[in-house]
């Protein structure tokens, strides 16, 4: 059965099935709704205000919405099921992200895109002026801008008709120096671009109107390669088995991207053939896989990839469905395991123009550390990732529905991503757990889990009794019901220590390299989707980062996406990315004599440097 | 039944079928043999020396070979049928055309191709030097040459394997700034290029070793578009009927080119995937059709095409089967009906650096006239073509087997292309016929064919009686047997007058424009395949060209092909072509007030200016 839904403020009338997911229904009907987590219930961006439609609140909504919000009819569209007719008020492009040329760091990006529109009005041909169509247009454009222009076969094959149908007037759309499209005059056809971050777990896109610089929509989706391995190493292993595997992962990624582009265009009522350029950030393995390059040597010493430079390519060559002559611009990488995503974070955070030392940490599947000082930017890549994404953790999982995302020991409290029964522990939950158990004395500085008899400080009995020995190792019972137990094992703590130690030693060695101490750091920026959920205090308690004053620690969201946006919207930012990538000094940690000793010392929990 | 044939000087042993055509058999066995006419018996380039093999001389061989040649066993391979075992001595690459970097004008072209080989020996990656593969190679190449280098997706997808298999040593092959291939070190793999002239009737290619500049082979084939119309106008009409027609002609042309490339590579034992660039000349309609551009407006005032500028394109985009990342370079055109073939002729003849006035005439399907003076180059395009290619002539035909190719009146003698019974009259035969009948007084200065009673000078009775009236017009019986008559009609004479008048007025108006007279002209160059067969004296008798002293009139063969060769072998010649095309001044004849009166005066036969 279908019911009538009126969408406000547009007044658009829809018919949706009873039982349908409201977010999915709205998107399929072409209503723009911001949901960067792809409907998993983690981003909380898809809030809508209902009159009718649905009465039953989900567990997540009960947990995440304030009393006032609930009383005013606010709901999370992704967790709302259509029950009856009614009205849905959708905040215009979910306001928070759709700023006019405003990045997540809040700074306006000056509009100077690589994609440009040039109005033209040419003299019509006469016997005295027999210049060919392309020569006529190119000559005009070259007179009114600096430098030569080019055209590909597709444009040349259609130029004659396009010029004549509008009497030699119109708009030329250029990507760089190449004329890729000829629009009718005053047709008001949009000129779109996309910023793309290809993460190991998530594909995130931002759709931008390049005539205004306005970010029309931000959306995200799982990287479909997940089915072939959760981390880059497992995917590299899969790809090196055969050329077909490499091609398969490439095609899967492109398929996922095409779906995401289609969705974001449908949401905003745009035509994906009007996307003329995609600026791409991402880690090195993902970008290699996207292009179909060999990745085998990324995983073998000396860890060298095929391509680091910035690269422009026709989108059609990879099967990416945008304008037939649209381009991809891949941001440059710094070193094989310090990818274009890091370049993009440095671009977004302007770390390259730091007067006082500034530190940025991007925790995705790997942990990248960047230190900007007046003498330049240093980076280091740490093997901090797998534990933070649930890898090698007994009950570890990614931050999807059912994951314990935060934990407090006294009183014992936790939250579950998406609500409902917990199914495992994600990265932020893991950090909270170890930090809290360390704080109350169940785990000591060396990371050893203590039995009640060994505890040196008084621990509440209801906590202490959750520690037990199973087989040859100790564990802490986080959750238990009739069907399952979720535990944190001694081995899990060791894994976190390794990850934490790697990240910490990265930070310390960069500071040592720059000859500064923690006190000199003016600002600490946490980037990455993960960076949005981590608890700052607990990260410091754990010693994940040095004991910086809390007010110096800021989250910047998906910095890689932000950097890609900058490179899309302003071509000087793109030049800057090339300069940054060439000038940044990458410190290979495993090659340093002081790595080992620092690493061992960094394994200890606590906030002492 | 097959017989054994030994090929000298190589000593290669073949088995050929009795009854097979010798030229075809040799080509299919991969023996290099020069035959630019494609085996029609018009170029006489495929001479071979036989011991055994064949005894029976063809009519063409009896006519075209000297007594000495016949006595020494020389034969035309294209007109020889295999009868028995024996030996065939094939001149090395048919010597005459396969000069090392020598054009047909006899001047060596300095080797400086756009396709370049760069040896490299890179430092292998280490932990201290983790540059990506492409960055490593590109950095090396950029250090050792000026300017940035680029790479496309295909190269990036294979670079990692190619560098490692040979320990980071090898040869990079560049087309312009783009690295298109990586060869193993010291593999001696050839680096080939092709010069291509796309004529309305004929496709001609020259295969060049770009390491040495040596022309390995020259070959030609009919343009398969012939089936869709003999001249450019009929093809434009066909193409404008539908997009499918346009695509069909494009595909036919590419198919013909691919076959020709395969054949020329097989002849010379080369791999067509080692062709990295094709420099393309051709008339504007043919180049438009080759690229699949709209041609409709080329045939409508003000006669404007889609593209005149020089253009580089990936060959694969058009389906041209060379190296997968090989390029096409289209020479620039001067104006819509003054195509890249004319630019190429100017390049080949160096008309652009004429101290004293020099005239070049390229007669293909159109007649192009070029005049070089110390003040620059002028061109004009004349509608001189159709009659010269048999169009609109009652018994007209192209210069293929059976065409009357030359004619002499006293005594009456003619030659037949390829020998045998005459089937029609080709361009050179038409010129001879009209010139001779004018000389003996059967046609008067106005072009009127005279009945015996009207003739003012004594004419041999056996000639005079061949003039008769049929229906409402007069005609001259050229040939007659039981089955057929071949005649030259009054209307044919009128058509030739129109063509001759157009060409002549073009020459005169260019001279007028440059303010010079016929006596000032130092050299007259006749280009085009047709230019090889025309009789110089008769062309002057007829007034096709002004009465220049014979020693000033030279044939330069296929000047368009020669220009394409120059642009292939030396990139400064390519720059020169761009400059020439931009600077040459094209005189639009039909737009001039003095065209009409000059044209009418030029219709008269005779050598008076």
- Principal-axes geometry of chain A comes out as globular
Number of helices of chain A: 17
Average pLDDT rating of chain A: 88
* Percent in helix of chain A: 25-40%
Query: Numbering strands along the chain, what is their spatial order in the largest sheet of chain A?
Result: 12-11-10-13-15-14
Write structural notes for this entry.
The structure is a homodimer. Chain A folds into 4 domains: about 1-95, Ubiquitin-like (UB roll) (Roll); about 115-185, Ubiquitin-like (UB roll); about 190-330, Nucleotidyltransferase, domain 5 (2-Layer Sandwich); about 355-555. Chain A is of the alpha/beta class and about 600 residues long. In chain A, the strands form 6 sheets. A 6-stranded mixed beta sheet of chain A has the order 12-11-10-13-15-14, with helices on both faces. The first copy, chain A, has a 6-stranded mixed beta sheet with strand order 26-25-16-17-18-27, with helices on both faces. In chain A, strands 2-1-5-3-4 form a 5-stranded mixed beta sheet. Chain A is globular. The interface between A and B is large, with 47 and 47 residues.
């Amino acid at each position: 059965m279908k019911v009538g839904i009126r969408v406000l403020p547009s007044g658009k009338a829809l018919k949706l099935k009873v039982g349908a997911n409201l977010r999915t229904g709205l998107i399929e009907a072409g209503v723009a709704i911001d949901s960067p987590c792809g409907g998993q219930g983690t981003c909380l961006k898809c809030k809508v205000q209902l009159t009718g439609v649905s009465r039953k609140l989900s567990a997540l909504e009960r947990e995440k919405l304030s009393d006032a919000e609930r009383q005013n009819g606010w709901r999370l569209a992704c967790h709302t099921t259509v029950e009856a007719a009614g009205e849905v008020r959708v905040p215009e492009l979910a306001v928070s992200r759709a700023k006019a040329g405003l990045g997540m760091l809040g700074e306006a990006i000056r509009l100077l895109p690589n994609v440009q529109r040039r109005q033209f009005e040419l003299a019509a041909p006469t016997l005295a002026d027999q210049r060919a169509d392309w020569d006529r247009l190119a000559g005009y454009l070259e007179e009114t801008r600096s430098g030569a222009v080019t055209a590909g076969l597709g444009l040349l094959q259609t130029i004659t008709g396009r010029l004549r149908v509008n009497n030699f007037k119109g708009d030329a759309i250029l990507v760089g120096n190449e004329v890729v499209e000829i629009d009718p005059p005053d047709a008001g056809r949009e000129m779109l671009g996309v910023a793309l971050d290809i993460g190991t777990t998530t594909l995130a896109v931002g759709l931008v109107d390049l005539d205004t610089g306005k970010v029309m929509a931000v959306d995200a989706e799982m990287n479909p390669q997940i089915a072939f391995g959760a981390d880059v190493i497992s995917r590299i292993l899969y790809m090196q088995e055969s050329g077909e595997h490499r091609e398969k992962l490439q095609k899967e990624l492109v398929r996922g991207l095409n779906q995401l582009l289609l969705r974001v265009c449908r949401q905003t009522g745009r035509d994906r053939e009007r996307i003329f350029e995609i600026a791409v950030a991402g880690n090195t393995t993902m970008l290699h896989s996207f292009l179909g390059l060999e990745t085998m040597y990324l995983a073998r010493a000396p860890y060298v990839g095929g391509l680091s430079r910035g690269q422009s390519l026709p989108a059609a060559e990879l099967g990416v469905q945008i304008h037939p002559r649209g381009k991809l611009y891949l941001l440059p990488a710094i070193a094989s395991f310090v990818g274009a995503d890091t370049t993009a974070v440095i671009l977004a955070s302007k770390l390259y123009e730091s007067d006082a030392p500034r530190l940025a940490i991007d925790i995705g599947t790997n942990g990248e550390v960047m230190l900007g000082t007046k003498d330049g930017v240093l980076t280091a890549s740490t093997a901090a990732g797998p534990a933070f994404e649930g890898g090698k953790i007994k009950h570890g999982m990614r931050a999807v529905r059912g994951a314990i995302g935060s934990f407090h020991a006294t009183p014992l409290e936790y939250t579950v991503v998406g609500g409902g029964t917990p199914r495992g522990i994600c990265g932020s939950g893991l950090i909270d757990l170890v930090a809290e158990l360390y704080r109350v004395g169940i785990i000591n500085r060396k990371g050893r889990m203590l039995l009640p008899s060994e505890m040196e400080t008084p621990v509440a009995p209801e906590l202490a009794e959750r520690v037990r020995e199973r087989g040859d190792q100790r564990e802490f019972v986080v959750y238990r019901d009739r069907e399952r137990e979720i535990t944190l094992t001694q081995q899990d703590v060791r894994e976190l220590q390794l990850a934490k130690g790697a990240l910490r030693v990265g930070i310390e060695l960069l500071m040592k390299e720059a000859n500064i101490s923690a006190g000199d750091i003016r600002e600490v920026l946490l980037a990455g989707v993960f960076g949005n959920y981590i608890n700052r205090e607990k990260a410091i308690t754990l010693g994940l980062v040095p004991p910086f004053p809390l007010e110096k620690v800021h989250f910047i969201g998906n910095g890689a996406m932000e950097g890609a946006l900058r490179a899309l919207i302003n071509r000087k930012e793109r030049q800057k990315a090339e300069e940054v990538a060439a000038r940044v000094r990458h410190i290979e940690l495993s090659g340093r004599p002081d790595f080992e000793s620092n690493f061992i010392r960094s394994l200890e929990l606590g906030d002492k440097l």
